[in-house]
Amino acid sequence: MTLQRLDHFVLTVQDIATTCGFYTRALGMEVVTFGAGRTALRFGQQKINLHEVGKEYKPNAARPTPGSGDLCFLSDRPLAEWINHLRALGVTIEEGPAKKTGALGPIESIYVRDPDRNLVEISNALDRDDLEPIRAWLREWQATVRAADFAAGRAMCAPEMLAFGTRAEMVEGIDHVMEQQWRHIWPTIKDFTIPAEAARGAVLGDRAWVAASWHSRGTRADGSTFHRPGRLTIVFTRREGRWLATHTHFSLSPSGT
Fold first, then answer.
1. pTM here?
2. Tens digits of per-residue pLDDT, 92-115?
3. 3 inside domain
4. From its phi and psi, is residue 129 left (phi > 0), alpha (psi between -120 and 50) or beta?
Protein backbone atom coordinates (compact mmCIF):
# COMPACT_ATOMS: atom_id res chain seq x y z
CA MET A 1 0.00 0.00 0.00
CA THR A 2 1.41 3.40 -0.97
CA LEU A 3 0.27 7.02 -0.99
CA GLN A 4 0.51 9.26 -4.05
CA ARG A 5 0.68 12.89 -2.96
CA LEU A 6 -0.54 15.48 -0.48
CA ASP A 7 -4.03 16.77 -1.33
CA HIS A 8 -4.48 19.41 1.38
CA PHE A 9 -3.58 20.30 4.93
CA VAL A 10 -5.24 22.52 7.52
CA LEU A 11 -4.01 25.69 9.21
CA THR A 12 -5.78 26.96 12.28
CA VAL A 13 -5.53 30.77 12.22
CA GLN A 14 -6.57 33.76 14.28
CA ASP A 15 -8.27 35.54 11.39
CA ILE A 16 -9.09 33.98 8.02
CA ALA A 17 -9.25 37.28 6.11
CA THR A 18 -5.80 38.34 7.37
CA THR A 19 -4.33 34.96 6.47
CA CYS A 20 -5.86 35.09 2.99
CA GLY A 21 -4.45 38.57 2.47
CA PHE A 22 -0.92 37.43 3.28
CA TYR A 23 -0.92 34.23 1.25
CA THR A 24 -2.48 35.86 -1.82
CA ARG A 25 -0.28 38.98 -1.84
CA ALA A 26 2.97 37.44 -0.64
CA LEU A 27 2.80 33.92 -2.06
CA GLY A 28 0.40 34.24 -4.99
CA MET A 29 -2.15 31.71 -3.76
CA GLU A 30 -5.81 31.76 -4.77
CA VAL A 31 -8.68 32.00 -2.29
CA VAL A 32 -11.38 29.41 -2.97
CA THR A 33 -14.61 28.58 -1.16
CA PHE A 34 -16.09 25.13 -0.82
CA GLY A 35 -18.69 23.26 1.19
CA ALA A 36 -20.87 25.42 3.41
CA GLY A 37 -18.89 28.63 3.00
CA ARG A 38 -15.51 27.20 3.97
CA THR A 39 -12.29 28.88 2.84
CA ALA A 40 -9.11 27.45 1.37
CA LEU A 41 -5.94 28.69 -0.30
CA ARG A 42 -5.09 26.90 -3.53
CA PHE A 43 -1.62 26.55 -5.07
CA GLY A 44 -0.53 24.09 -7.75
CA GLN A 45 -2.55 20.91 -7.26
CA GLN A 46 -2.86 21.32 -3.50
CA LYS A 47 -4.71 23.55 -1.09
CA ILE A 48 -4.63 24.77 2.50
CA ASN A 49 -7.97 24.56 4.29
CA LEU A 50 -8.38 27.29 6.90
CA HIS A 51 -9.97 26.91 10.33
CA GLU A 52 -10.56 29.90 12.57
CA VAL A 53 -9.36 29.21 16.08
CA GLY A 54 -12.28 28.31 18.34
CA LYS A 55 -14.49 27.60 15.31
CA GLU A 56 -12.75 24.53 13.93
CA TYR A 57 -14.60 22.16 11.64
CA LYS A 58 -14.97 18.57 12.79
CA PRO A 59 -13.03 16.38 12.79
CA ASN A 60 -9.97 18.45 13.59
CA ALA A 61 -6.51 18.16 15.10
CA ALA A 62 -6.28 17.35 18.80
CA ARG A 63 -4.51 20.63 19.59
CA PRO A 64 -5.29 23.16 16.84
CA THR A 65 -2.96 26.07 17.54
CA PRO A 66 -2.21 29.16 15.43
CA GLY A 67 1.50 29.57 14.77
CA SER A 68 2.43 25.90 15.14
CA GLY A 69 2.90 25.27 11.40
CA ASP A 70 6.23 24.80 9.61
CA LEU A 71 5.63 24.70 5.85
CA CYS A 72 7.88 24.37 2.81
CA PHE A 73 6.81 25.42 -0.70
CA LEU A 74 8.75 24.83 -3.92
CA SER A 75 8.90 27.52 -6.61
CA ASP A 76 10.43 27.71 -10.07
CA ARG A 77 11.03 31.45 -9.64
CA PRO A 78 14.57 32.31 -8.44
CA LEU A 79 14.92 33.09 -4.75
CA ALA A 80 16.39 36.49 -5.62
CA GLU A 81 13.05 37.44 -7.18
CA TRP A 82 11.19 36.20 -4.11
CA ILE A 83 13.43 38.22 -1.81
CA ASN A 84 12.81 41.42 -3.79
CA HIS A 85 9.07 40.72 -3.96
CA LEU A 86 8.71 39.99 -0.24
CA ARG A 87 10.82 42.94 0.86
CA ALA A 88 8.71 45.25 -1.33
CA LEU A 89 5.69 44.03 0.68
CA GLY A 90 7.47 44.65 3.97
CA VAL A 91 7.87 40.94 4.73
CA THR A 92 11.01 40.17 6.72
CA ILE A 93 13.31 37.42 5.48
CA GLU A 94 14.06 35.61 8.71
CA GLU A 95 16.78 33.35 7.32
CA GLY A 96 18.41 32.37 4.05
CA PRO A 97 19.13 31.72 1.34
CA ALA A 98 20.38 28.47 2.84
CA LYS A 99 21.05 25.00 1.44
CA LYS A 100 18.65 22.38 2.78
CA THR A 101 17.41 18.90 1.90
CA GLY A 102 13.93 18.47 0.44
CA ALA A 103 11.82 15.39 -0.20
CA LEU A 104 13.46 14.71 -3.58
CA GLY A 105 16.92 16.13 -3.07
CA PRO A 106 18.83 19.33 -2.32
CA ILE A 107 17.01 22.66 -2.15
CA GLU A 108 17.88 26.27 -1.36
CA SER A 109 15.47 28.13 0.90
CA ILE A 110 14.44 31.40 2.48
CA TYR A 111 12.22 31.66 5.57
CA VAL A 112 9.46 34.11 6.47
CA ARG A 113 6.58 34.24 8.97
CA ASP A 114 2.88 34.49 8.18
CA PRO A 115 0.50 36.61 10.34
CA ASP A 116 0.12 33.77 12.88
CA ARG A 117 3.92 33.31 13.04
CA ASN A 118 3.86 30.01 11.19
CA LEU A 119 7.26 29.40 9.62
CA VAL A 120 7.02 29.53 5.82
CA GLU A 121 9.91 28.17 3.74
CA ILE A 122 10.16 29.08 0.04
CA SER A 123 12.55 26.88 -1.89
CA ASN A 124 14.21 26.26 -5.22
CA ALA A 125 15.11 22.69 -6.14
CA LEU A 126 18.81 22.29 -6.84
CA ASP A 127 20.35 19.85 -9.28
CA ARG A 128 20.16 16.37 -7.86
CA ASP A 129 23.26 14.21 -8.07
CA ASP A 130 21.83 10.76 -8.83
CA LEU A 131 25.41 9.51 -9.10
CA GLU A 132 26.23 10.28 -5.45
CA PRO A 133 25.74 6.66 -4.24
CA ILE A 134 28.22 5.57 -6.91
CA ARG A 135 30.64 8.33 -5.94
CA ALA A 136 30.37 7.06 -2.36
CA TRP A 137 31.19 3.55 -3.64
CA LEU A 138 34.31 4.94 -5.38
CA ARG A 139 35.44 6.65 -2.19
CA GLU A 140 34.94 3.41 -0.26
CA TRP A 141 36.85 1.50 -2.96
CA GLN A 142 39.72 3.96 -2.72
CA ALA A 143 40.01 3.33 1.03
CA THR A 144 39.74 -0.43 0.48
CA VAL A 145 42.56 -0.51 -2.08
CA ARG A 146 44.78 1.70 0.08
CA ALA A 147 44.29 -0.66 3.02
CA ALA A 148 44.69 -3.74 0.79
CA ASP A 149 41.54 -5.00 2.49
CA PHE A 150 40.60 -7.89 0.23
CA ALA A 151 37.63 -8.97 2.34
CA ALA A 152 36.10 -5.49 2.15
CA GLY A 153 36.69 -5.38 -1.61
CA ARG A 154 35.03 -8.75 -2.01
CA ALA A 155 31.93 -7.47 -0.20
CA MET A 156 31.67 -4.57 -2.67
CA CYS A 157 31.45 -6.80 -5.74
CA ALA A 158 28.99 -9.32 -7.12
CA PRO A 159 30.15 -12.96 -6.90
CA GLU A 160 29.89 -13.34 -10.69
CA MET A 161 31.87 -10.18 -11.49
CA LEU A 162 33.95 -9.93 -14.65
CA ALA A 163 37.20 -7.93 -14.70
CA PHE A 164 39.77 -6.64 -17.17
CA GLY A 165 43.06 -4.86 -16.60
CA THR A 166 45.95 -3.35 -18.53
CA ARG A 167 47.78 -6.64 -18.90
CA ALA A 168 45.22 -9.10 -17.55
CA GLU A 169 42.98 -11.21 -19.70
CA MET A 170 39.32 -11.50 -18.84
CA VAL A 171 38.92 -12.77 -15.28
CA GLU A 172 35.56 -14.14 -14.18
CA GLY A 173 34.32 -14.66 -10.63
CA ILE A 174 35.18 -12.67 -7.52
CA ASP A 175 37.62 -15.25 -6.14
CA HIS A 176 39.63 -15.36 -9.37
CA VAL A 177 39.66 -11.56 -9.64
CA MET A 178 40.95 -11.25 -6.10
CA GLU A 179 43.72 -13.83 -6.62
CA GLN A 180 44.78 -12.86 -10.14
CA GLN A 181 44.47 -9.08 -9.91
CA TRP A 182 44.04 -7.53 -6.48
CA ARG A 183 46.65 -9.56 -4.58
CA HIS A 184 49.27 -8.81 -7.25
CA ILE A 185 48.58 -5.07 -7.46
CA TRP A 186 47.16 -3.56 -4.27
CA PRO A 187 50.15 -4.30 -1.98
CA THR A 188 52.58 -2.80 -4.53
CA ILE A 189 50.96 0.63 -4.96
CA LYS A 190 50.60 3.66 -2.71
CA ASP A 191 48.24 6.62 -2.45
CA PHE A 192 45.60 5.13 -4.74
CA THR A 193 43.15 7.97 -5.42
CA ILE A 194 39.93 8.25 -7.43
CA PRO A 195 38.66 11.85 -7.92
CA ALA A 196 35.08 10.75 -7.32
CA GLU A 197 33.56 14.21 -7.78
CA ALA A 198 34.84 14.29 -11.37
CA ALA A 199 33.46 10.85 -12.24
CA ARG A 200 30.89 10.53 -15.01
CA GLY A 201 28.16 7.93 -15.31
CA ALA A 202 24.48 7.19 -14.96
CA VAL A 203 22.04 5.43 -12.66
CA LEU A 204 19.21 3.59 -14.40
CA GLY A 205 16.97 1.92 -11.85
CA ASP A 206 18.97 -0.91 -10.28
CA ARG A 207 21.78 -0.60 -12.83
CA ALA A 208 24.56 1.96 -13.02
CA TRP A 209 27.89 2.65 -14.69
CA VAL A 210 30.74 5.03 -13.99
CA ALA A 211 33.93 6.16 -15.70
CA ALA A 212 36.71 8.01 -13.90
CA SER A 213 40.42 8.60 -13.77
CA TRP A 214 42.63 7.42 -10.94
CA HIS A 215 46.24 7.79 -9.91
CA SER A 216 48.67 6.04 -7.61
CA ARG A 217 52.37 5.56 -6.99
CA GLY A 218 54.01 2.33 -8.08
CA THR A 219 57.02 0.84 -6.32
CA ARG A 220 60.21 -0.24 -8.10
CA ALA A 221 62.44 -3.10 -6.98
CA ASP A 222 64.82 -0.64 -5.31
CA GLY A 223 61.96 0.85 -3.27
CA SER A 224 61.65 4.07 -5.23
CA THR A 225 58.22 5.13 -6.44
CA PHE A 226 56.83 6.47 -9.70
CA HIS A 227 53.62 8.14 -10.84
CA ARG A 228 51.08 5.55 -11.96
CA PRO A 229 47.92 7.13 -13.47
CA GLY A 230 45.01 5.25 -14.98
CA ARG A 231 41.32 5.16 -15.82
CA LEU A 232 38.42 2.93 -14.88
CA THR A 233 35.01 1.82 -16.03
CA ILE A 234 32.69 -0.02 -13.64
CA VAL A 235 29.22 -1.49 -14.13
CA PHE A 236 26.98 -1.94 -11.06
CA THR A 237 23.85 -3.70 -9.98
CA ARG A 238 21.86 -2.86 -6.85
CA ARG A 239 20.91 -5.80 -4.66
CA GLU A 240 19.08 -5.47 -1.36
CA GLY A 241 19.82 -1.74 -1.37
CA ARG A 242 23.59 -2.11 -1.88
CA TRP A 243 25.52 -1.28 -5.06
CA LEU A 244 27.79 -4.13 -6.21
CA ALA A 245 30.31 -4.05 -9.06
CA THR A 246 29.52 -6.63 -11.73
CA HIS A 247 32.24 -5.54 -14.16
CA THR A 248 35.45 -3.58 -13.61
CA HIS A 249 38.05 -2.38 -16.07
CA PHE A 250 41.07 -0.72 -14.48
CA SER A 251 43.84 0.18 -16.89
CA LEU A 252 46.89 2.39 -16.91
CA SER A 253 46.59 5.58 -18.91
CA PRO A 254 48.74 5.75 -22.07
CA SER A 255 51.30 7.87 -20.23
CA GLY A 256 51.45 5.32 -17.43
CA THR A 257 52.02 2.18 -19.48
1. 0.55
2. 999 999 999 999 888 999 999 999
3. no
4. beta
